[in-house]
Amino acid sequence: MPGRTWKLCLLLLLGLGLGSQEALPPPCESEIYCHGELLHQVQMAKFYQDDKQFVDMPLSIAPEQVLQTFTELSRDHNHSIPREQLQAFVQEHFQAKGQELQPWTPADWKDSPQFLQKISDAKLRVWAGQLHQLWKKLGKKMKPEVLSHPERFSLIYSEHPFIVPGGRFVEFYYWDSYWVMEGLLLSEMAETVKGMLQNFLDLVKTYGHVPNGGRVYYLQRSQPPLLTLMMDCYLTHTNDTTFLQENIETLALELDFWTKNRTVSVSLEGKNYLLNRYYVPYGGPRPESYSKDAELADTLPEGDREALWAELKAGAESGWDFSSRWLIGGPNSNSLSGIRTSKLVPVDLNAFLCQAEELMSKFYSRLGNDSQATKYRTLRAQRLAALNAVLWDEETGAWFDYDLENKKKNQEFYPSNLTPLWAGCFSDPGVADKALKYLEDSRILTYQYGIPTSLQKTGQQWDFPNAWAPLQDLVIRGLAKAPLPRAQEVAFQLAQNWIRTNFDVYSQKSAMYEKYDISNGGQPGGGGEYEVQEGFGWTNGVVLMLLDRYGDRLTSGSQLAFLEPHCLAATLLPSLLFSLLSR
Predict the structure, then answer these.
(1) Is the pLDDT of residue 6 over 60?
(2) Does residue 165 contact residue 535 with C-beta atoms inside 8 Å?
């Protein structure tokens, strides 16, 4: 595209609060999988229902030869190759997707992990055993050719096998893998987790960050930073201090990426606070959704298109692709053409980083490095002050994303609003009580099939009526950690609702899904850019976590009544009486 270079420079210069940004070159140079005329012509021809299919197809010969043949073909047809000839070119030079991976059964998989014995309900115990079996179905290993001829693949070579989400997602994904790892550790598969962790650490050593997923076209963006938390979970199960010692500097390097490239300054009441945002300073359509991004950009003036594509990539980096969270205000408030991800300071991102800073301080103390431990303790204290000043709302009892342009909080409901509770990043001991009231006031406890992703129906997949496993975990474990019996009981009821939804859908369809529609009984979710996918890594992980935590109480029976606020007293009465009598 003409003018791409100066537009990218302009994007880098015009970003909000970019004093600490580093103008990095685009990390993916592939003129086949990331940008260029070949990608444009093939994706706009729409040979495949899903744009991701093409960019996942390996090359049959070296990329230089493919590009040379394409350039000649394109020149012969005045840069508009007839559809039939273009299709023949693709068939000749590309292989079917999935060729570079082979099924893999983890060596540490065992028949009957101990957590299964904690599940009292016989039907739930059988189901948990079936989910444990799914790790074998979702296990993948790279073929040697990906290492010997990396230039022929969009897949980034990883030495160790791994668990994929499932469906169209046949490579690993960054934040998905945290909940996958939690499930694997319950399945007593610590060696598999160590291999997956090593893959991520290797990516940080090579690229300076963990990409969105294991493909070269994901290199321009990351995903919610949970690598430090993954290490903590692995250490809790294994006490493998040697592994921590070997990789602590790589963990620090990943957090540096967020500091150098995703920091923004917020000025409030005469004080400046440093927080983080999702921000991808590269234009061009996302290769895996190329035609959709190109067509969406066609609805805008040419000068606005690069900025739109950068915002779409930032939305993908958030993991919430896409949501009303990023579509605030303006004439296009319900259209993706109005997306403005980088103009918001997200609660969840900053809670994740706050938690990571606390863990890094703990890690360095464990390794005897007091100066580094103090550094991260100070960083956490600064972030905690910023969270309180910029994102916390005392009147409502929750944290909210901060709009940098309009200088105000986005007070819509999202489960991410309670992430600091889950991450332990708060200073007010009464915060759980306030969060509980916030859930009641927002009428979230009236949804009996799961916690909705938002209360806005935009047709995007990270909005109503969809519910997602990781977001259930953010709220449930946030409440479960609180010292209040009331918060713990509501956490259990929310867990019960989610388990029943997953179990009922599995009973009907013999499948786990990436998301669920909770508007009219539990159903597989919908909306967004592709069909709902089966598998499903993080859904399985969260279910196993809930079954482990509450297995002695959860049941597979019929759905509970709505958790109206006035019903909470009846729900909690037995546990409160027990608490009083046992004093």
Answers:
(1) no
(2) yes
User: Cα separations (Å) of 352 from 20, 54, 225, 296?
Assistant: 20, 34, 7, 32
96-280+349-581 fold: Glycosyltransferase (1.50.10)
The strand pair at 408-409 and 402-403 is best described as antiparallel
The confidence score (pLDDT) of residue 521 equals 86
Could you give the CA distance from residue 366 to residue 348 in angstroms, rounded to a whole number?
Answer: 27
Q: Which two tokens stand for residue 319?
A: 């993991």
**Amino acid at site 394:** E
* Residue from 100, 171, 288, 514 carrying the catalytic annotation: 514
Rounded (5°) CA angle 57-59-217: 55
Of residues 213 and 582, more confidently modeled: 213
Distance between CA atoms of residues 20 and 18, nearest Å: 5
Give mean pLDDT, residues 221-240: 98
CA 498 to the chain's CA centroid: 19
Domain spans of the chain?
Answer: 31-95, 96-280+349-581
Q: Does the annotation count 246 as an active-site position?
A: no
Number of neighbouring beta carbons within 10 Å of residue 145:
14
pTM, to two decimals: 0.92
Radius of gyration of the chain, Cα coordinates, nearest whole angstrom: 24
> Average per-residue pLDDT in the chain?
92
* Residue 137 CB neighbours (<10 A): 12
Neighbours of 50 (CB within 10 A): 15
- Count the helices and strands in the chain (H runs, E runs): 21, 13
Contacts of 11 (CB under 8 A, 6+ apart): 281, 282, 283, 306, 307, 310
Answer yes or no: 22 catalytic.
no
Q: Which of 56, 321, 358, 440 is catalytic?
A: 321
Return the residue matching tokens 């090359």. Answer: 59
How far apart CA 195 and CA 140 sit, in angstroms, is 12
Contact status, residue 514 vs residue 471, Cβ threshold 8 Å: no
pLDDT digits (tens, 9 = 90+) for 61-73: 999 999 999 999 9
Query: For residue 562, is the peptide bond before it cis, meaning its omega torsion is within 30 degrees of 0?
Result: no
